[in-house]
Amino acid sequence: MGTHRTFIATYIMASGWNGTLYTGSTSNLESRVWKHRSRAFPGFTDENDCTRLVWFEQHALMLEAIRRERRIKKWLRDWKLALIERDNPDWRDLAADWFPDPNWIPPSDAD
Q1: 100 found inside a domain
Q2: What is the CATH number of the domain that holds 29?
Q3: Assigned domain for 59 exists
Q4: Measured distance CA(30)–CA(39) in Å, rounded
């Protein structure tokens, strides 16, 4: 059973305000954010502490989300910062209250 955050999305994770950015896409945003926070993905996001969800955009199709991700990854950093700050000028962690239970396990995802 899904939640209101179980949807296809393109997203940006950050290490903090104006910090390191990571752009991705997923078919289950809630599960993916949890994986970044729990450091289930060794590599770039883990090494750079990209655990804060600072921007996301919902899509109807996974192909749309992947195309948007690839487009954003080619952007200049200033453009990415402007995208984040348009909707989230304070760089709030948009998923700050998603995981109140430390033993919570996300729903499975297909990606």
Answers
A1: no
A2: 3.40.1440.10
A3: yes
A4: 14
CB 107 within 8 A of CB 31: yes
What phi and psi, each to the nearest 5 degrees, are found at residue 88?
-140, 65
**pLDDT of amino acid 1:** 36
Order of strands, sheet of 52-58, starting from the edge strand that comes earlier in the sequence? 21-26, 9-14, 52-58
Tell me: the pLDDT tens digits for 45-77? 989 999 999 999 999 999 999 999 999 999 999
Flag whether the pTM goes above 0.85.
yes
Residue 41 included in any domain: yes
* Residue 83 identity (one-letter amino acid): L
Give the H or E element holding residue 30: helix 29-37
Q: Which two structure tokens, joined as six digits, stand for 10?
A: 């393109």
Q: pLDDT, tens digit, for every residue of 75-99?
A: 999 999 999 999 999 999 999 888 7
CA distance 86 to 64: 21
